Amino acid sequence: MAAGDAARSPGEGELVVVGPSKAVAQEGELVYPGDRITFGATAPPLVMLGAGVLREEGHVIASKAGILRFDAAERRLSVEADQRRYVPALGEHVVGVVVEKLSEEYRVDLGCSSPAALPVLAFDGATRRNRPNLHVGSLVFARVVLAHKDMEPELSCAAPVGVMSKDWMTGQSLFGELKGGTTFRCSLAHARSLAADDRPGGELLALIGEHVPFEVAVGANGRVWLNAGTVAQLVAIQTVVSRAMDAPAEQRARIVADALARR
Amino acid sequence: MQRPTHEIVSLSERAFLLGALAEGLRGDGRGVLDMRPVHIRLGPSSGAAEATLGDTRALARVSAELVEPFADRPTEGSFAMSVELSPMASGAFEPGRPSPEAIALSRVVERAIVKSNAIDLEALCVLPAKHVWAVRCDVTVVDHCGNLLDVCALAAAAALRHFRRPYVRVLHSEQGEATSVEVCAADVEEPEHLALRHMPLALSFALIAEDGFSTPLALLDGSEREEAIASGSLSVVLNQQGELCALHKSGGVPVGAEQIRECVQAAQLKFRALAKALDEVLNEAKKSLASSAPPSARTGEAATRQPPSR
């Protein structure tokens, strides 16, 4: 950071990092653990704390080294780093496997340190009598509604505020059981880039869609669910995604075309 | 040995993998007898090696120390293996004491090397009944994506063939009796390779037995997902001469003699590529060692002392 930047006063609502490593940093820049993150002069009060940030003594600080991100639509603040171990963060969409079925909740494996709880009624339109019946081994797409470092994470399949809620019976709800298809694992960074259309790597799913129709659910926990018409198509899509993610951006279209043109 | 080493497999994924196998496809696009890409890296110091098979990765480290031999075998050194499954490798591995899986892995690799007499234990004797070399090989699995046995055996083989122990000079008394030994530093005397008669490598098959299959389907180099749905595994340990050094089958699924023979034959065909990859890396290391070795008075002599490494 140049000295001039440190002297510059932050604009309204602008994200500012005050910390040992930097005077002022903006969204998309590198932060280090311990850096304090604040908003500019007129601070918008409400933000969601995503991965890699935590609140300590009234300040928001970065808990790991990575790129600072602020999702303006969801008002979520997070620090992104390349890792494979998932640490649940509020509001993230995840793909999990039911490992245990209890009377009040399902226990779901997300690949994090402890299984997450999914209450049996946490589906839109679910009642005691009429609710989805998941089995051990079922896949679910859900969002994290409780993430605390000392507590078990909690999930919900109900639509969040701002998303039209559809009854789970219709099979058209955003979250819920994922039937058929398959999953594969990737690093958290890869999962993030697959899910974001405006980031490098985000165009990959669209490229594949030009050749083969398929369904996809990308979990922030590095699990990606795919479904397509035939098993052969699924195998091809899965292989091409893992191969193309590591390839330079300009080669992706060719890799996808080569692998899927025959399907 | 199979289940607890894997993360849970969803019902959809199991159905997908089995459905794909019914069409002759594997989940990652390989054929039934295709291995994942092999990569071996040696160094930086002697006896350190890293082997990868696809995304499965293991590090091996060979070390040797001078110890007193067992009283009943005064002229034999010893060899021991240990495998550590690091929690970094998979969420299914716990830190702490070695798990039964880790112990089973190290036993299979150790037995394959020791029982096939790959290491000349008598050549590890320096002074009978007094000083012998105790060689040990520590393997750490750092990334678990299936088929740990083959990767551990490959890393161990690479490290053992790369390892050079210090040269030891035996000091004699005036009467000509050997009295004590002196371990020479690498810049004084050229270190020596281990005396290896051959070096076995493992090739494993994941055995998938489902209602639809008449005999279990043997998949070479099973991925982590395939192993998680497998009913057992069959490991074939071979050496460069194509000889069978060990056969290890785990899991309760019955396998007929005919199928075992087919697996061994398939493994013999695939073995060549694996052994070639290892030989190339070792030759490369030998060349760079020869070019970078500091000129020493005894270098020429040391080179002739080296046992022929086969």
TrEMBL record, chain A:
Q: Which InterPro entries match?
A: Exosome_RNA_bind1/RRP40/RRP4, KH_dom_type_1, KH_dom_type_1_sf, NA-bd_OB-fold, RRP40_KH-I, Rrp40_S1
Compartments, record wording: Cytoplasm; Nucleus, Nucleolus
Please name the Pfam families in this protein's record: KH_6 (PF15985), RRP40_S1 (PF21262)
Q: What's a single GO CC term here?
A: nucleolus
Ranges of residues in domain K Homology: 181-231
Q: Which UniProt keywords apply?
A: Cytoplasm, Exosome, Nucleus, RNA-binding, rRNA processing
What are the recorded GO MF terms, alphabetically?
RNA binding
Q: What is its main location?
A: cytoplasm
Domain of life of the organism in this record? Eukaryota
Output one GO BP term.
TRAMP-dependent tRNA surveillance pathway
Q: Which family does it belong to?
A: Belongs to the RRP40 family.
Family matches, as PANTHER family: EXOSOME COMPLEX COMPONENT RRP40, PNAS-3 RELATED
Q: What is this protein called?
A: Ribosomal RNA-processing protein 40
Q: State the organism named in the record.
A: Diacronema lutheri
UniProtKB/TrEMBL annotation, chain B:
**What does the UniProt keyword field contain?**
Cytoplasm, Nucleus, RNA-binding
SUPFAM superfamilies, per the entry: Ribonuclease PH domain 2-like, Ribosomal protein S5 domain 2-like
User: Pfam families, alphabetically?
Assistant: RNase_PH, RNase_PH_C
Gene3D superfamilies in the cross-refs? GHMP Kinase, N-terminal domain
Q: Where is the Exoribonuclease phosphorolytic domain?
A: 35-166, 198-268
**Does the UniProt entry include the keyword RNA-binding?**
yes
The places in or outside the cell where this protein is found are: Cytoplasm; Nucleus
Q: Where is this region: Disordered?
A: 286-310
Q: Which GO terms describe its molecular function?
A: mRNA 3'-UTR AU-rich region binding
Q: GO CC annotations?
A: cytoplasmic exosome (RNase complex); nuclear exosome (RNase complex)
In the record, biological process GO terms are:
exonucleolytic trimming to generate mature 3'-end of 5.8S rRNA from tricistronic rRNA transcript (SSU-rRNA, 5.8S rRNA, LSU-rRNA); nuclear mRNA surveillance; nuclear polyadenylation-dependent rRNA catabolic process; rRNA catabolic process; TRAMP-dependent tRNA surveillance pathway; U1 snRNA 3'-end processing; U4 snRNA 3'-end processing; U5 snRNA 3'-end processing
Bias regions of kind Low complexity — which residues? 288-297
Q: Which family does it belong to?
A: Belongs to the RNase PH family.
User: Which PANTHER family does the entry link to?
Assistant: EXOSOME COMPLEX COMPONENT RRP45, EXOSOME COMPLEX EXONUCLEASE RIBOSOMAL RNA PROCESSING PROTEIN
Q: What is this protein called?
A: Ribosomal RNA-processing protein 43
Organism of origin is: Diacronema lutheri
